[in-house]
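Subject: design request, 659 residues
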């Protein structure tokens, strides 16, 4: 049995896979102590399945602990050790600005305060040691870090990705001298060039690791007490790692939650479609979108979180503040806006009846009949129509609009925000969305899928049977994975097959330790000499340099429309993933006969239509025409007029645009 538990901003989801049988549960997230919500979700899904904790073989976990701590700036008190003259690197950053024409727009406050930045008397250059590290320097730095009261320290020295000897000596001494302080060394976290990004990533790693260590330690104890195996934690790269390993590398799990959803989208895109889909995860707080091609999620190695760069291999997920709990409001010009502020799990939308008073996307969906008044959402949340009408009515009064018009406006604004997010990962990157299916998931995603598909001219929607908890399902299917990247800077004359193979061999030996049956996956980052950015070329562990160049120029021509046959090609970075294939679950459709039929009025394109409502999980082979509403156990799928639906063998509702 495979158990996956994903913590979101509003709900915590659990999936138990027993062969092809799928059992699910959803409970409200407990923001102040997330492990409590995790164990409640586990208890509920085991109870529904009639299973014992001792029968669980794999317990995979996706979390938002690191992401939230970084966004809310509540990580560990952190110090930085840098090469003399470079202690203010985080403050200086790059010359780019958050807003091109707002010269005074503030940048995020550095995570390390000036009094906790320490300079090491040493210098390494691109050709070797320039200024040796004095013998007593590690002790002087350790004493300074201890006196600063830091809980964690990041060590980031110049050119340590080429020669880590000085950085290694300092880090090893800090670990011996200050055993209670977490130490992150940049040559271990990110041995690649671009000094500012390497420093930022290493500081984030140090900032988050103590917090994750405490959280995962508590979760591990709770799992042991419950008779569960120790959790495997989803990393940002889309693979799981033991909790102890994840706790020591906080930067690697910043996108733990969204990564599970991306893996789940890849699984269902292959099972229920042709492997090409746009994943669209709309939860209570945010919306995450990704591109799945041939069953694989696109990846990146650079992004910003809270305005802070983090440069590690990760799934390419774009996030916007548009979820079911996103709050509608009027700006200073009287225009309707939605998000990014969210009602979250506590108190939640007004219709939850827990003290929320501001209008949200969920309140608007309830007023327009997409959700049923008086019914319960997953997790036992009862919906109060009068509370929703009161909250939206107050906003309507301030805008001078009818409450129903305001509710419809909230949905249109939220839809456009999500359309923009999908265009970022498709149109802006040269991908035509019309060649993909839309795969909505999360508790709110399927309610908005048809409007978004029509806007992007997408003709097929794949709504998974477990769409409301697909991130947790993705956790069950995840591979064991460990990633690394190394800057090598080989010119074309230096780029020999023997040298590349030797470098890759040492990387595989270091990264694959302890991962039995792991298979290496290599990506070579190349560019023309003088260019600022690289293009990724996949290849074997022992590639032919001529074939690498040919593949690079093919990609360069596709991306930029030209190639330089006479230009020198440089191998900049080698990225390695050591992966042990995960389970290959094949969820089956629910048995027939469990669907309850009803009707209610739903607003479609300004017209109220008496609409069939199917509550439960439809059996394989079921067909229907829109308009209709599927009330699935953890999500609601709204199908407008002009769409037809059929249910495949995996329980996925395949909807096609017939207009």
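Subject: RE: design request

Done. Sequence follows.
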């Amino acid at each position: 049995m495979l158990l996956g538990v994903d913590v979101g901003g509003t709900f915590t989801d659990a999936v138990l896979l027993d062969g092809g049988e799928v059992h699910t549960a959803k409970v409200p997230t407990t923001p102040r102590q997330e492990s409590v919500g995790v164990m409640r979700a586990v208890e509920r899904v085991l109870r529904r399945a009639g299973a014992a904790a001792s029968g669980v073989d794999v317990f995979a976990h996706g979390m938002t602990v690191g992401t939230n701590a970084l966004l809310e700036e509540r990580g560990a008190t952190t110090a930085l050790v840098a090469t003399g003259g470079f202690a203010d690197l985080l403050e200086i950053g790059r010359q780019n600005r958050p807003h091109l024409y707002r010269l005074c727009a503030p940048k995020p406050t550095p995570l390390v305060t000036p009094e906790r930045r320490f300079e090491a008397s040493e210098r390494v250059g691109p050709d070797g040691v320039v200024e040796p590290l004095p013998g007593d320097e590690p002790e002087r730095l350790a004493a300074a870090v201890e006196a600063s009261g830091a809980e964690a320290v990041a060590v980031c020295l110049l050119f340590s990705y080429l020669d880590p000897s000085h950085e290694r000596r300092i880090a090893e001494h800090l670990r011996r001298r200050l055993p209670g302080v977490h130490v992150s060394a940049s040559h271990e976290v990110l041995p690649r060039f671009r000094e500012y990004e390497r420093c930022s990533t290493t500081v984030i790693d140090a900032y988050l690791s103590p917090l994750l260590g405490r959280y995962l330690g508590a979760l591990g104890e709770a799992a042991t007490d419950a008779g569960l195996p120790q959790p495997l934690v989803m990393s940002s790269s889309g693979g799981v790692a033991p909790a102890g390993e994840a706790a020591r590398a906080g930067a690697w799990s910043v996108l733990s939650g969204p990564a599970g959803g991306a893996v789940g989208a890849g699984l269902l895109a292959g099972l229920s479609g042709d492997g090409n889909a746009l994943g669209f995860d709309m939860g209570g707080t945010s919306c995450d979108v990704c591109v799945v091609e041939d069953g694989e999620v696109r990846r990146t190695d650079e992004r910003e979180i809270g305005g802070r760069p983090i440069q590690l291999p990760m799934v390419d997920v774009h996030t916007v503040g548009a979820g079911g709990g996103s709050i509608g409001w009027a700006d200073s010009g009287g225009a309707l806006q939605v998000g990014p502020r969210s009602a979250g799990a506590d108190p939640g939308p007004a219709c939850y009846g827990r003290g929320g008073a501001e209008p949200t996307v969920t309140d608007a969906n309830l007023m327009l009949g997409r959700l049923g008044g008086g019914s319960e959402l997953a997790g036992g949340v009862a919906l109060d129509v009068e509370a929703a009408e009161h909250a939206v009515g107050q906003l309507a009064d301030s805008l001078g609009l009818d409450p129903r018009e305001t509710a419809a406006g909230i949905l249109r604004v939220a839809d456009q925000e999500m359309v923009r997010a999908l265009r970022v990962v498709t149109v802006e990157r040269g991908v035509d969305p019309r060649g993909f299916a839309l795969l909505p998931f999360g508790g709110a995603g399927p309610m908005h899928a048809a409007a978004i598909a029509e806007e992007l001219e997408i003709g097929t929607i794949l709504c998974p049977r477990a769409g409301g908890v697909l991130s947790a399902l993705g956790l069950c299917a995840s591979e064991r994975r460990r990633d690394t990247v190394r800057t090598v800077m080989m010119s074309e004359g230096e780029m020999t097959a023997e040298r590349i193979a030797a470098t890759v061999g040492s990387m595989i030996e270091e990264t694959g330790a302890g991962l039995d049956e792991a298979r290496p996956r290599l990506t070579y980052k190349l560019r023309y000499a003088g260019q600022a950015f690289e293009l990724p070329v996949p290849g074997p562990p022992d590639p032919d340099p001529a074939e690498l160049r040919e593949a690079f120029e093919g990609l360069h021509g596709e991306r930029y429309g030209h190639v330089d046959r006479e230009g020198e090609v440089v191998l900049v970075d080698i990225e390695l993933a050591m992966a042990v294939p995960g389970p290959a679950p094949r969820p089956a459709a629910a048995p027939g006969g469990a669907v309850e039929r009803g009707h209610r009025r739903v607003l479609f394109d300004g017209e109220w239509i008496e609409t069939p409502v199917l509550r439960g999980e439809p059996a394989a082979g079921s067909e229907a025409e829109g308009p209709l509403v599927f009330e699935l156990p953890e999500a609601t799928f709204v199908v407008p007029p002009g769409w037809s639906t059929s249910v495949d063998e995996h329980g996925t509702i395949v909807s096609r645009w017939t207009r």
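The radius of gyration is 26 Å.
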